[in-house]
Amino acid sequence: MLLALILTTICLFLVLVYILLMVLSPSIPTPGPEAFKYHSNSEPTIAYPLPSSTAPAECDLSVVIPAYNEAKRLPPMLTEALNHVLGNKLWRSVEFLIVDDGSKDNTADVALEFPVPEDPKSSVNVSIRVVKLPQNSGKGSAVKHGMLHARGERMLMVDADGASKFSDLDKLWVAMDNGADVVCGSRAHLVGTDAVVKVRRTRSFIRNTLMYGLHTLLRFLGVSHIRDTQCGFKLFTRPAAHTLFQTLHIPHWIFDVELLVVALMCEMKTDEVAVGWHEVAGSKINILWDTLEMLRDLLVLRANYVTGRWKVVRVDNAQTNGSAGNGHVTDLENKSAANLRRRVVDATQK
Asked: What region holds the Glycosyltransferase 2-like domain (predicted)?
């Protein structure tokens, strides 16, 4: 009788935990039909259908820029980025795909009207495309939409504020040439320098404490091998991007961590490269609310993958033919839950 009561209690507890997990788990909403069309700087009044997420690559590099109310900060970033890509011989064709995440200002118009600098010495073909999401869904949601409809053999995720030094893309490119599937720009090398020390002095004690707390939690997710998970400057091969972003569930700030967790589960080669960075005014992070949201998402992330409730969405090589990927993604076995559990244990024992 006592044993039956104990078993019943355990079963009820597990059911309640599962229901709680379902309730707390975030999801990325499916955008409306207008989100699957784009406008270009060459023909801004005409809407064209976005390419399929499984179509072959059509250019060497896609620069995916999530933007929410970035009409003021976007132009300096585009100026720096365009000047660099036009003066570089690592690529022949580059698209800038700005994903307007339900902005209330004229971000989309600013992007479409932005002039591509004329460089007679450059043979690089550059295009600017803008996709408008009907409502603000979160940075992760905007990046996912852009990555799944970008045309590049390689895809760069970069913030609209221009905080990262765009020319350091060359470093990420070399790391990918050497076999990486994912290359993360990193600010970790700046710890202790004026670039970070001055920023920390101007930030509140609470914000700095929460930042250290986030890095501690990341160890329990098994991604401690990447010192800076939150830098918005990451380069992906086409196959890696499609597997990672098809799988992505988290629409908010912590989506970078989910990408790295899935990359670990898929045994993708992930490198970290030091990049230049500077603080840019105008951050949209609400310290209290967004921190609580990050904490919830981290716990839910671990629970969903460890239990197998969230699974990796495999992308076959045939679906991404023409890419410059290294082929790691397509040879993977989906060892997801067991692989993550092993890595979590390893991280906690360090």
From this structure: 62-243
